[in-house]
């Protein structure tokens, strides 16, 4: 997969493009504003020259030659202006100033009519330059017929000024965008320094340190949440690592015990000749150890499949009383052997996987029977109440210390550090119960009062109503 590139560079490029767009917009506005202002100024000057030309023609005392000379002087001194005058019959009288090409055909301004911006016409000159001009009829002295006069300006200097201004705007826009990109890159790189510190700190984290070596309070507010999230993730990973380490140790211990038993018994049996009965007793003992190993392996495979979402939950509508009575019957022989009575009080129904539900309840009953004192009762209780279905397995006994309750459902956890009853319990029965409840989107809880009653509770989501 191709790398996405530097975020700082991408953001700096975005800044440059945004700045370039903004500068270009401002430059375009300034260009049009300047062009309009220059045209307005030039048109005002053109109107003044047209008014002066009309005034020069109106002087009655001047001779004809002097009148045309004065008329040509209206545009003298400026190479961009020009003047054309023709007699009523079309005979050219004056032609002076810049070359303006052929003006478009249009009615001339009548004699005495006011000269204003509406009188100005525009056309293109011989070189493609814009030309603004006014064509009017004016009386020359006392002559009865008016002459036609055209005063115009060729916008050569205006176009040169605007062309130079355009290039300056383009250059300024490019330089501004480049400066915005460079400064933005520098600012972003400085702003990304806390992220680099977080990255460096994260690289330095090990399972023994377990803490992000960056103080979240010293980071910007936007990165504080990220640092806290990383810290919590590191803590969770460390917790999982410690649990995995403990799991490996416990697994090795629990597999070592039956293997050592098998090996020791077999070595003793092979040390000397034995009777057929002794060999049969050895094989029976070995079978028990093999069965225990098989149960442990089966439980570990179940947990592994559940962790990888490979356990399919097949829901069915189950009667709580029927299911708990069935479990009580299954454990009846074990309970009778210990002098324990199992009582069932259940009503309602639950949507659950039959096999998984029986396994979870069976694990709880097995624990309850194991730890209940002789002559006591194990109570199975279940009720369906609206949005929840509760199943409780409780028994009297020594109870569980309050500090051990949160760890009961961890794999291979035993409240007894000496691993009492290690031969009977693998330490993953309650972990399987919790996994089954997780698969059903429910919860497993434990309550215990030392020396009185211990209660394990399974809470399933209530059954969906009609239309849900």
Oligomeric assembly:
single chain
Name the beta content range.
15-25%
What topology, given as strand order, has the largest sheet?
2-1-5-4-3
Radius of gyration: 51 Å
So what's the overall shape?
Answer: rod-shaped
Helix content: 40-55%
Q: Please work out how many helical segments DSSP would assign.
A: 10
Global mean pLDDT: 83
Distance between the termini: 44 Å
As residue ranges, the low-confidence spans are: 417-423
Main sheet?
Answer: 5 strands, antiparallel
Label the structural class.
alpha+beta
Q: How many domains, in number, for the residues?
A: 3
Number of strands: 12
What does this structure look like?
The protein has 468 residues and is of the alpha+beta class. It folds into 3 domains: 7-163; 216-307, Signal transduction histidine kinase, dimerisation/phosphotransfer (DHp) domain (Helix Hairpins), CATH 1.10.287; 316-461, Histidine kinase-like ATPase, C-terminal domain (Heat Shock Protein 90, 2-Layer Sandwich). The protein is 51% helix and 17% strand. It contains 10 helices and 12 strands. The chain has helices spanning 7-58, 64-73, 156-191, 193-203, 221-271, 276-307, 320-330, 332-337, 354-371, 429-439, and strands at residues 81-86, 92-97, 121-124, 130-138, 147-154, 316-319, 341-346, 349-352, 377-385, 388-396, 443-448, 453-461. Strands 2-1-5-4-3 form a 5-stranded antiparallel sheet. A 5-stranded mixed sheet has the order 7-9-10-12-11. Strand 1 and strand 2 form a beta hairpin. Helix 1 packs antiparallel against helix 3 (156-191) and helix 9 (354-371) packs antiparallel against helix 10. The protein starts with 6 loop residues before the first helix and ends in a 7-residue tail after the last strand. Mean pLDDT is 83; it is low at 417-423.
